[in-house]
Amino acid sequence: MTQEVTVLGLESSCDDTAAAVVRRDAGGRGAILSNVVLGQDDLHAGFGGVVPELAARAHAEKIDLAVERALAAAGLGLADCNAIAVTAGPGLIGGVLAGVMCAKGLSAATGLPLLGVNHLAGHALTPRLTDGLPFPYLMLLVSGGHCQFLRVEGPDAFARLGGTIDDAPGEAFDKVARLLALPQPGGPSVETCAAEGRATVPLPRPLLDRPGCDLSFSGLKTAVLRARDAAVAAHGGLPREMRADLCASFQTAVAEVLAEKSRRALALSDVTAFAVAGGVAANRTLRAALEDVAAAAGLPFVAPPLALCTDNAAMIAWAGIERFDAGHFDDLTLAARPRWPLDRAAAPMLGSGKRGAKA
Ligand code: KG4
Ligand code: ZN
């Protein structure tokens, strides 16, 4: 690694239109020169979830604006970049297409090479951008659309040790918030409400009785629904303390299940660190539980800052740099892929989440 590399990254696979410029210096260290995220929360707020067609149109309208802003914030032009990286999947296909078409246009106009990046690889490689983490490490990806344990072995080498067979944990937080009439996104509002309660409501610990690292969250959500209905029937409404206890009980169940499965994944994986990414990694109860698991295994715990845990284009630019260094370039035949498992040898995951089909 002798040459400095600067890459423009584009991300549009769910509900954030994002562009960023990232530079890797000759010593291998990454620096984020700009990181622009144009969210779509307002657009989808009235629908209780992301509407793929609306998301795709908004991406197509705003992706060039995001690029302009990212270049301006970095104080650079396209001519200062060495390549263009873009999320080519997995995700909502209309949005992915908007990003890929924009990146192809920029590549065709400038002659800069194109790097098609797997969105999940972007999340999984982020600890290398933020902390220079060496391979191999264990990554737990927990967001509104993803949930999987990955042994990250190289820029394009990932072994999936397990994942959710139904909902992602963020989806479960969002659904529980809806059941309890708390605002969206559900994660932060459930966490705030839980702070006033005690984890006294008995809820299941799904799949703990089964060996391995797979997870399930949809039964937990149904159990919260039943407990809510029982409380409403008993009290003629949902008392505030009962709602707080339900939130605390649900959050504890999620944290305990993820902690136990993390213990198992670490026991299986022979790694030098335990890293976490995704919006749910913002949850303090969960973070504390995972930190304990890492400490008990004698491993460092790495959680990138929140803005780099949630969807962003800096992670795509960095994953692009890792491809650049490996000489893995794409051309104008690059295809947008709704499904794109990182571990090609693993069986497909079931279900479909906020971002469409699960990887
Ligand atoms: O990674 P992200 O921004 O988007 C994708 O899903 O890709 O994650 C968003 C998810 C939402 O479901 C949100 O409710 C959840 O992360 N989340 C949290 C917290 N903050 C965000 N879940 C639990 N506790 C939180 N503090
Ligand atoms: Zn994501």
Task: Please explain how this structure is put together.
It is a single chain. Helix 5 runs antiparallel to helix 8, helix 6 packs across helix 8 and helix 7 runs antiparallel to helix 8 (240-269). The protein contains eleven helices and twelve strands. It has a five-stranded mixed sheet with strand order 3-2-1-4-5, with helices on both faces. It has a five-stranded mixed sheet with strand order 8-7-6-9-10, with helices on both faces. It folds into two domains: 5-131 and 308-357, Nucleotidyltransferase, domain 5 (2-Layer Sandwich), CATH 3.30.420.40; 137-306, 2-Layer Sandwich (Nucleotidyltransferase, domain 5). The chain is an alpha/beta fold and 359 residues long. Helix 9 (284-296) links the parallel strand 9 (274-277) and strand 10. It has helices at 41-44, 52-74, 93-110, 119-131, 169-179, 186-194, 218-235, 240-269, 284-296, 306-309, 314-326; strands spanning 5-11, 16-24, 30-39, 83-89, 114-118, 137-142, 147-154, 157-163, 274-277, 301-302, 352-353, 356-357. Bound molecules: 5'-O-[(R)-(carboxyoxy)(hydroxy)phosphoryl]adenosine and zinc ion. 5'-O-[(R)-(carboxyoxy)(hydroxy)phosphoryl]adenosine binds next to helix 5 and helix 6.
